[in-house]
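Field notebook, page 374. I keep forgetting to write these up properly, so this time I am using the form the group agreed on. The chain and the ligand, pyridoxal-5'-phosphate, are recorded exactly as supplied. Prediction of the bound pose follows.
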Amino acid sequence: MVDLVSQYEKMQDEIDEAIISVVRSSAYINGPEVKAFQAELEAYLDVKHVIPCANGTDALQIAMMALGLKPGDEVITANFTYVATAEVIALLGLTPVLVDVNPITFNIEPEAIRKAITPKTRAIVPVHLFGQCAPMEEILEIAREHGLFVIEDTAQAIGAEYTFSDGRVAKAGTMGDIGATSFFPSKNLGCYGDGGAMFTQKDAYADMLRSVANHGQSRQYYHDNVGVNSRLDSIQAAILRIKLRRLDEYNAARQATAAYYDKAFAEIEEISCPARCGNSTHVFHQYTMILNGVDRDGLKEHLAQMGIPMMIYYPVPLHLQKAYRDERYKQGDFPVTEMLCERVASLPMQTELDEEQMEHITWGVKSYLKAVHI
Ligand SMILES: *Cc1c(COP(=O)(O)O)cnc(C)c1O
């Protein structure tokens, strides 16, 4: 799905030098590279504070801890997402309240959020799924009306831009109270190991996030809160600084691949290409199609024989996952999520695909559909 070695080879000297320089500096934790990356990402996102941490799952957890969410509090999130979002809610003893998504954009549905609000609701966690922003204007409005926190899960959408109806443009992760992202290698901005970060415009939240991520301490050996230990390594920060300079170029390469796939499948009834929702750019963490009346396993097998990976993000809705089954929910309660889990398929999406590979991939898909027709 992702060719990170070819990407590395194009900047090998720069990366090797940066890694060796950190090794020689011995500033492995919280070194100058981490501070520099933090400042550069703040400038890129136009956000007041970036607080690096160990991974995207931690970023979500630390955000919820920093906002003071307590066991029993209800947190609304999308049912159609990666498990990490719901996992940290459950881990903190909060109650995950799942809502259905939009069948065209795959993102959380504002009307469904409204219906899910109770007196116990404290926060909404929209996920900018596959690289396109959730409807933030509506979500922020709901949050304002009901006094709720908004934590954006922007692990798949770093660099995406959202335009509000008054023309204001903001980057994914900078619109809610806190944004949480991941630098897992295959993400749009990925390092060579684990990494993550939180974003916020508010000084008070930034102080709290820094404290929680660092054993709850206010100054060394003074612990005001129960915290965790979650840090970004200096080596990863050095790599991220180099890749951040190329992020817009990488996202443009993903968009060009998406445009190629769109064009190749434009006339094919069995494929609904990913929709663009107008007020957000799409940075294509994944190119996820909806298959109409196609044997998905058959297509996957056919592509595998041609050496083409196809992935299902995600095959099982959260409410039907063994760990998250709950008497509040049953099969059929989330018709859109359940339909998507049965019909979505994601094609290879990364920064290094050339025309020949894209041609091979699209031919692979088309040849299966044609073969089935005969
Ligand atoms: C990757 C991802 C995460 C978790 O990030 P890690 O760095 O793997 O912990 C959380 N939410 C979403 C939507 C993701 O895609």
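OBSERVATIONS:
- The chain has two domains: 4-244, 247-372.
- The mean pLDDT is 96.
FOLLOW-UP: compare against the apo run.
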